[in-house]
Each structure stands twice: as structure tokens, then as C-alpha cells.
Amino acid sequence: MLSISTKLDHIHTDTVIDDVVSLSFDLRQKSRIRVTLQSGKEAALYMQRGTILRGGDFLRADSGEVVEVIAADQAVMIVTATTSKALTRAAYHLGNRHVPLEIGDGWLKLETDSVLKDMLLGLGVEVEELQAPFEPESGAYAGGGGHHHHHDDDHSHDHSHAHEHGHSH
């Protein structure tokens, strides 16, 4: 079993990506977790407490292998509205409940929750449930704000970075 305890700040063009791990947002928040890599190998992640892994992050195993983190498809809701005021109102009410949100141009994404869905529908917005990666905002006090990939250099390896959501925004 691989032991992984280092998150890389960036990788270089000549860095070989040895494996991939696909994790839901809930699992990417855990500091100690056992995972199965894309290759089928088992790995134990020992991240510093408070670390939230993001899709596009890179980890180094204690034995030297580099593993890319992919945001797995999971049950989410996409919220849209016919007016910006209605969407802003929905964001306000979700924020009051400290709900993790991914914010896009004209849409909000959150983890599926039937109570929140009922509230949102009551506010007059549209809610679509689907399976898609989830990358919520990091929060105002998380340092740096927003979601940032650390791709200082181009890199290449034999898998796609396409993140199809099955819909368009």
C-alpha cells in the first residue's frame, strides 16, 4: 500500500504522473483516508489537518510516485433562475445556512439535499439534479479565496482533463 502525505505546490513539464485518484468533495476533505487509485493500487492518504484536496492537485507518495487528484462525479444540484435577483436570493439563503457552493456564471452548484431543494423551489428557482464533479468556493477565511489550480508549467500524460457535466451553463 502506498503512503501519501505530501501535497505538491506545482509540477514541472517533465514530471511523470504515476496514478490518479478520483474522490468526492466529502472524501477530499478528510485528512486520513484509505483509497483505491485508478490503477487498482491501495493508498493511505495522510494529509495535514484542514487540507482540502481539489481536482487538479498533485500528491507525492513517500516512495516517490506522483498521484493526480480528480474531482469525482457525485450527486449535486444545479440551481438556475430566470433573473439574477432570484439567483442572488437563492445564494443568500444558502449562504445563511453555510452550504458549500460552487458558483458559476448564472448558476450555483451544491450537494444534493432534499430539504434545500424544497427551499430553493419555494424561492422560485430551477433545480436540476445530476452527477457531476463538485468544487465549492473555499470560503472567505480560507486564505486566497476561490479555487486555484497550481499548474505553473504545462504537463502531459495519458489521460484526459475533460470534465463533462452532461449539460451546459
TrEMBL record:
GO cellular component: cytoplasm
Pfam families attached to this UniProt entry: UreE_C, UreE_N
Composition-biased stretches (Basic and acidic residues): 151-169
Keywords: Chaperone, Cytoplasm, Nickel
Domain UreE urease accessory N-terminal, residue spans: 4-67
CDD domains tied to this protein: UreE
Positions of the UniProt region annotated as Disordered: 136-169
Compartment list: Cytoplasm
InterPro entries: UreE, UreE_C_dom, UreE_N, UreE_N_sf
One Gene Ontology term from the biological process aspect of the record: protein-containing complex assembly
GO molecular function, one term: nickel cation binding
Recorded family membership: Belongs to the UreE family.
Function, as annotated: Involved in urease metallocenter assembly. Binds nickel. Probably functions as a nickel donor during metallocenter assembly.
Protein name per the record: Urease accessory protein UreE
Source lineage: Bacteria, Pseudomonadati, Pseudomonadota, Gammaproteobacteria, Thiotrichales
